[in-house]
Design brief:
Blueprint lengths: L10 H18 L9 E2 L1 H8 L3 H9 L6 E3 L2 E5 H7 L8
Antiparallel strand pairs: 1-3, 2-3
Length: about 90
């Protein structure tokens, strides 16, 4: 164990300095990424007001990435939203 002696620093100043160090450490600490919501094909179809065959076609074309858990298919909400591309007007 290392022992450090502090001289010519008031107790109050030492507490302020320690609080600053702790706050800086907490600010730089990475927070755990929120869990991404999983959507069923029906939820994705409802989100875009399209049919299930359209969702399957988008998956087969690589526009949407399917995730399988057992026999069930899901889509990550963040990936679905990334698949949406803005349309630029050429007028």
């Amino acid at each position: 164990m290392v022992t450090t002696q502090v001289q010519n620093v008031s107790y109050d100043q030492m507490l302020i300095d320690m609080a600053d160090l702790i706050n800086k450490a907490l600010e730089t600490r990475s927070t755990p990424k929120e869990l991404d919501k999983f959507l069923s094909p029906i939820e994705v179809a409802e989100m875009f007001d399209v049919s299930l065959p359209t969702i399957h076609a988008w998956s087969n074309a690589g526009i949407l990435r399917r995730l399988k858990i057992g026999t069930r298919t899901y889509y990550k909400q963040s990936e679905v939203m990334k698949a949406v591309k803005p349309v630029s007007d050429t007028n």
